[in-house]
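Pasting as-is:
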Amino acid sequence: MPSGPTRVDAVMLEARATVLASRSIKTSAKRLALDLVVACMDLTTLEGKDTPSKVRGLCARGISPAPGVPSVAAICIYPALVAVAREALEGSSVKVASVATAFPSGLSPLDVKLRETREALEAGAQEIDMVIDRAAFLAGDYGRVSGEIAAVRDACEGATLKVILEVGELGSYAAIRRACDLALEAGADFLKTSTGKLGVSSTPAVALLMCESIRDHARRTGRCVGLKLAGGIRNSKAALGYVAIVHETLGNDWLRPERFRIGASTLLDDVLMQREKERTGSYAGADYVATA
């Protein structure tokens, strides 16, 4: 467990993140990078109106987004729809990822969180996206937060565990870095930025900060942990900026689905349109409208 707060130079962090995220990727390299974004995508639906038919459609799209385009890494859904996704993805390379542990608040007793995790795994989930108890973290009860992550890690029984920090609620870069270090020490397989339910989620500076925590942990322990960016990533330009940050901070070994994910619900549409433009020199049609 981290022994004390980590000092973070916010000005330097934001300046470097801005430079990295603005790097341009051209021609054939851009098309390869767009395919990488798809291959590392957790195609997500986490709405109260989600239905089995909607999830089946999402799974079909995740398996085959477009001719010549790789499958996404995973479909991310609520636990109640895991069995539907598992059946729809049978025989494909696409994983079933389930949110758990009282998503998005994290405010339930530990026994409830563990039961939800186990039930999602029994239904066929291969990856669990858990949320930390931010109230406990902000109150300084780091032992409780660490203990819950470790308990969920044990319950996962070999499944991939992504730990959602909900960075928009943590208040400072120093607090985010401390939460990263705590989750890494407690056994997270991935650090994840956000639930996607807040206005503030992934930013280039936060992504860089989390990459640095993962890099320092790997150097110290030899254990390589993944990064999942989620919340507000809606267009290819932003996604490619994050690819650049990961590449420059963690290296090529992280540019694969086993160590890098982008959680998104609308990003795929823009990536496919940008990919078509790279192939043909123009957008697919007059109806195209670039997302903000």
